[in-house]
Every structure is written in C-alpha cells, then in structure tokens.
Amino acid sequence: MHVFRGLPSPLQRRPSAVAIGNFDGVHLGHQALLEYVKEAAQARGLVPSVVTFEPHPKDFFGRGGEVARISTLYDKVNAILGTGIERIYILPFNSRLACMPAETFVRDVLLKGLDACWMSVGKDFRFGGDRAGSVELLEELSRTLPYELYVSPTFYHKEARVSSSRIREALAVGDLYEAALMLGRPYSMTGRVIHGAALGRTLGFPTLNMAPIPPGSHSRPAVTGVFAVRIHGLGQAVQNGVASIGVKPTVATDGRWLLETHVFDWSGSAYGRIVKVEFVERLRGEKKFSGLDELKAAIESDADHARRILGCVRPQADVPLQGMNP
User: What is the pLDDT of residues 220-242, one digit of tens each?
Assistant: First the structure.
C-alpha cells in the first residue's frame, strides 16, 4: 500500500483503476464503490487506487463559510486503505489545479500522470476550471481516449441517499447512532497528541490534546460540544473518558479548534502518540462560562455524566494522573 502526496514519478506509475472524489467520512456508499474498484482492477490487471484532494476544494475557495470535515486526513487515508485499496494519490488542491482546463486534467493528470485505464466518479462530480468538467464530458472523452468510465450508483439508507452531507447533518445535532449507521462504524477521530496550555491540569482534569483541523484551514470539525468517549491507543485496554471539541470560548480567543480528552483513572505519558477518540454520546454543546470556577464545575458534572453513560465508577480515592498531557 502506498500513499502519494501528488503525482507519482514515471518509475512509480502503474496502470490503475481509479476512484476520484473527496471521500469525506469514507461512508458505506464510498465503501461499496471501493469494493467495485477492487473488482474492476482485478478483472483488468490494474492497481486499485483512489484520487482525493487536500485541502477540500470548498476549503480552498473559502465559499459558503467553513467546511464541516467528517474525517481528519489521517482517518480518511486509513479508512480507504482498510478497504483494500492499494494506492492513494492526495492531489494538492491549489490555484493551478483549480484553474486547470477540465480536458487537461483528464489527459495530463489522470491519463499521463496516473496511467488511469479505468476510472469512477459520482454522478455530480465536477472538476477543472470554472467546474466545467462533468460526467458528460468524461463520457464523451472516453470514446476517443484510452480509459473506461464507471459512474458510481447511489447507496441508500432508510430510503434516502447515504452521503457525507447527511452524516454532517446527523453529527451536527449529536445523532451519533444515525451517523454510525451510515459510516458503518462508530464515529471517531484519530490524531497525534500535542502539547496544550496546561489549563486542564490546573483545574484537576488533565487532557490529551489533538488538533482536528490544520492551522489556517477554512474547515471545522463536523462535531462540536462535550462527549462521553472511549480512547484507543494508550495501551492494549480501551480507556473511558470525557472530551470537548471546540474553540474554548471561555479561555481562548484565537478560534483554534482543539479536541481535549480527559481519560478517567489513567496515568502515563501520551505526548506524540497516535490516539483514536471514539465518540459515544453527546452530553451538551460548547458554552462560554463566566470564569474558571464555573468551567471547573461544568467539567466535573460532565465527567460524572460520562461515567454513568460508560458504566465506569469513580474510584474511592483519586488516582494520580502523573504524565497526562496538559
């Protein structure tokens, strides 16, 4: 399995079956398509591959406000590779790609750059300068250029189309169950633990900190608020905890998104580790408090609520949490 930032070198190119799209969430519809990509590749002796874009095109143009991202790039890549896709090409969505004529994108990027012999897109896929490229153009070009085109069918859940937009809507209102049905797995977020401002430690609730959105991005996470969570990656056992994801309005003004996770009854060093936070139930939305005392009281209440949901009893004596990230 290989992940490329941009196009491969000439020596790295392989005749490929390529699915093209943003694949935010890698939901059941995406997974069904990627299974078909593998079948098409096997039948034709091609390498099953995915072409995706970073940042999200809507993020690049900054149109319509912030883009609610379901997946971190780390999660998206791992979910795609988990389906058996062998190659992922992450194309930098920049001004050059945004302005490239649609036919040039097909000829220079897909055919010459990736050696795509079979390709799949959704019926609403648009590409190229001024979004002039369409499924109809790809079908027309396939009559004279050496590739096959497959337009992916719609995948349904409860008589409605499974889409990243529907998952975003479910996550926005805290409906993790509905989101999980469309994702085919519990909703989670994975990232590297980074240093924070140590405020959680000061309040008695040290946290593992992750940045769910790259600095300078126009994106935002698809979830906000406080959640009961399970934490994977701190050893063999799955840990329980409470997490807040937002912009910390009580103590910060920089607008930076942060996922802060307090792990119950755990001690150890986690800086630099890759940790997965699985969201179990939303407790409340993000709120600006009058000060640190009110914030601490809310965290204590949230922690007790999360413990009840997760079925983990508070120990009789406080467990020292040395080594937790601030």
Answer: 899 999 999 999 999 889 999 99
170-222: pLDDT as tens digits: 999 999 999 999 999 999 999 999 886 656 666 667 889 998 887 767 788 99
- Long-range Cβ contact pairs of 54-57 (< 8 A, separation 24 or more): 54/90, 54/91, 54/92, 54/93, 55/93, 55/214, 55/217, 55/218, 55/219, 56/22, 56/24, 56/93, 56/219, 57/22, 57/93, 57/98
> What letter does residue 71 receive in the DSSP assignment?
S
Residue 322 tokens read as 């040395």
Domains plus CATH for the chain? Answer: 2-161 (3.40.50.620), 188-310 (2.40.30.30)
- DSSP single-letter state for residue 140: H
Q: In the numeric block, which tokens belong to residue 317?
A: 């004596």
